[in-house]
Known about the structure:
This protein is α/β, with parallel strands linked by helices and 243 residues long. The chain has helices spanning 2-15, 40-44, 69-73, 89-100, 106-113, 117-120, 138-144, 148-160, 181-187, 217-228; strands at 80-86, 129-133, 163-164, 168-170, 192-194, 205-213, 233-241. It is 36% helix and 16% strand.
Amino acid sequence: MGHVTRLLSRALDILYPEDCLLCGAALPLFPHPGTAPVCENCRKDLRPLSGRRCEVCGVPLISEDRLCTRCRIQPYAFSRHRSLFAYSGAIRELIRLFKFKGKRRLGRLFADYFFDVRREFGFSVAEPVYLVPVPSRARRTRARGFDHVKLIATLLAAQRGCRFCDCLTRTGGSPQKSLSFVERQKNVRDAYSPRSSVTRVAGAQCILVDDIFTTGGTADACAAVLIAHDAAGVSVVTLAMEP
């Protein structure tokens, strides 16, 4: 029955496509299956981050230094972080629709925007590279009906010739939204644990995948778990970072 429902849903998407999620403009009939309902004009407004940034965490720099003050004083467990967009405007709204309104087709749009993660971090084609999704709370995943970060990581792994490894789980910590910078860092310190599949990343490069980079605490905590289980190194990619 589930298969029939999916086929009917796909047929309706083709015959009666949604309007653009951002501006409400009518979209062309008979869109390609899986195409995200965002018009071409709105896609042009999704401009990637630019300007000088810290070589480790990716925050904007106003000086000629290579690293920000935070990365000079207290290094992260990960070696590099790169984000696609600033977490504001249209991209903020699309992430909200993706996470909380079940617009799963946005996952492919996001994956398509990602740079070549292998080339960005200097990994050779022959080098084993694992994409590891930052795990969400089980309760949140059940409420949404899907794991939004895992979906992006799966699509990105297939597109960029990387391996996918869902080897982390969230076992503690409280919701982050209302916490201060310091509270966020403390909250996630011991919030993540390895799954049995973590043994696969031993000796390999890992790229953590997440939706939003705020303080770096979540990525740092996850990277520490992977390093403790003999990952050769950990880099991080996110859809957006707090401006």
